[in-house]
From TrEMBL:
Domain of life: Bacteria
Pfam annotation, one family: ABC_tran
Single GO MF annotation: ATP hydrolysis activity
SUPFAM superfamilies: P-loop containing nucleoside triphosphate hydrolases
InterPro entries with a match to the protein in the record: AAA+_ATPase, ABC_transporter-like_ATP-bd, MacB-like_ATP-bd, P-loop_NTPase
Keywords: ATP-binding, Nucleotide-binding, Transport
Sequence ranges assigned to domain ABC transporter in this UniProt record: 5-244
UniProt protein name: ABC transporter ATP-binding protein
Signal peptide (residue range): none
CDD domains associated with the record: ABC_MJ0796_LolCDE_FtsE
GO CC annotation: membrane protein complex
Family affiliation: Belongs to the ABC transporter superfamily.
Transmembrane parts of this sequence: none
């Protein structure tokens, strides 16, 4: 399987002189095309810093990040916005939909900015909306649709540009259990049915159980990794809890 993302000995330090915080000490891993990787760890473990470095929001102090063979750490500042738009999809905790745009226009935003021809934009938006079951609300505005439909709109926007990698940062953090299940089901469907490559940061064992494998971070380093393989989600969930217990943390999530 082709590797989409490669991290080689990533380090990230903050501060200077005698007051240096080592957010990421030495992390290496890769993500294959079509993978669904979860990143777990307690607050301060480095998981959000890691996501920010991959997404070019922050820059590494040392090491290399490659996305589809391109070294992310060497992209010039004026090219970063275009790089993100062409290569990355984002699923935000609060969805970040624009209320002044229709659902269709929200989904199409990245395509429009990239100057994709309008007839192609319409076709791609309708196709992804059909696959995520929101085709009937494309002409409505975000305030006119349900929370679950907003979630699917956010997912459609993340995947419509065929990004090489989708990044989800605590996507269920502000949701109730029912909405969380719906969103995680949609994200999992994007991975299974659309072949999307996904990296999801979460502190929640229930959310993590939807992934195919999980890296656990502690103090800026990889503590361990587990893979779901052919196990059921319930069995994988229990294995996640076992690792969290071993790390000194737990979860109140219930399947």
């Amino acid at each position: 399987m082709r590797e989409v993302l490669q991290l080689e000995h990533i380090q990230k330090y903050y501060g200077n002189g005698g007051n240096i915080t080592k957010a990421i000490r030495d992390i290496s891993f890769s993500v294959a095309e079509g993978d669904f990787l979860g990143i777990m760890g307690a607050s301060g473990s480095g998981k959000t810093t890691l996501l920010n470095c991959i997404s070019t929001i922050d820059m590494v102090s040392a090491g290399h990040i490659f996305l589809d063979g391109q070294e992310v750490t060497e992209i010039r500042e004026k090219e970063i916005a275009r790089f993100r738009r062409n290569n990355l999809g984002f699923i935000f905790q609060d969805f970040n939909l624009l209320d002044t745009l229709t659902i269709s226009e929200n989904i199409a935003l990245a395509l429009t900015i990239s100057k994709v021809p309008s007839e192609e934009v319409e076709g791609r938006v309708r196709e992804i909306a059909r696959r995520l079951n929101i085709e009937e609300i494309l002409d409505r505005y975000p305030w006119q649709v349900s929370g679950g439909q907003k979630q699917r709109c956010a997912c459609a926007r993340a995947v419509v540009n065929h990004p090489k990698l989708i990044l989800a940062d605590e996507p269920t953090g502000a949701l109730d259990s029912h909405s969380s299940r719906m969103l995680l089901g949609t994200i999992s469907g994007m991975n299974e049915q659309l072949g999307a490559t996904i990296l999801m940061v979460t502190h929640d064992a229930f959310s993590a159980s939807y992934a195919k494998r999980i890296l656990f971070l502690r103090d800026g380093e990889i503590f361990t990794e587990i893979r779901r393989g052919t196990a059921s989600r319930k069995v994988f969930f229990d294995r996640i809890l076992d690792v969290l217990t071993m790390m000194g943390g737990g979860s109140d999530a219930v399947l």
